[in-house]
Amino acid sequence: MRITVFGATGGVGQEIVRQAVAAGHEVTAVVRDPARLPVLLSDVQVHAAAGLDDPEALREAVAGRDAVLSALGSRGRKADGVAERLTRSVLAAMEAEGVRRLLVVSAAPIGPRPADDPLVDRMVRKVVGAVLKEVYADLTRMEAALAGSATDWTSVRPPKLTNGPLTGKYRTEIGGSPRGGRTISRADVAHAMLALTHDPAAVKQGVGVAY
To answer: Which of 30, 77, 79, 104 is the most exposed place for a label (fewest CB within 10 A)?
Structure first.
């Protein structure tokens, strides 16, 4: 499979690149600074982009790909619209090149929660939601952009991310979130994204992932 990875220097993005290469996929990593991608291997193609706001500059990176995986987003509490803005740029480049499959990292609070979630989880979500209000608002707008696009998109919605190991043992729920799911490692989020790439049931859906 030929894939392009955006946000390849972040925690999830590096894992996507590493695991995709190990699985034998042809990988293009889109980065601003190649020196920030420590998982660079001889068989990883690097597309250096000074910025991601210009769809025309991204068309070469996505042309002819079977799938595009994006881990773009805010790295702090101040989102500044980065997820929505950059995802719209990626969408425009993909639509211009006729590339359809797109998977992005979102967050569990963007999707519906089980009605029977434990009380402590509901309380924690309320507190975290207040702290990360701008980030979640940005991701909500990003998902709206996905829904309005011509792509076959999937939004992967993890809860709290950790630096734990790849286990391959986690729960997924299409259109919802696993009950009581509180954490998942970045490595397993990457694993889930690669696995969902070929799942037709996940197309145009949000998918909750958690332990």
So the answer is: 77
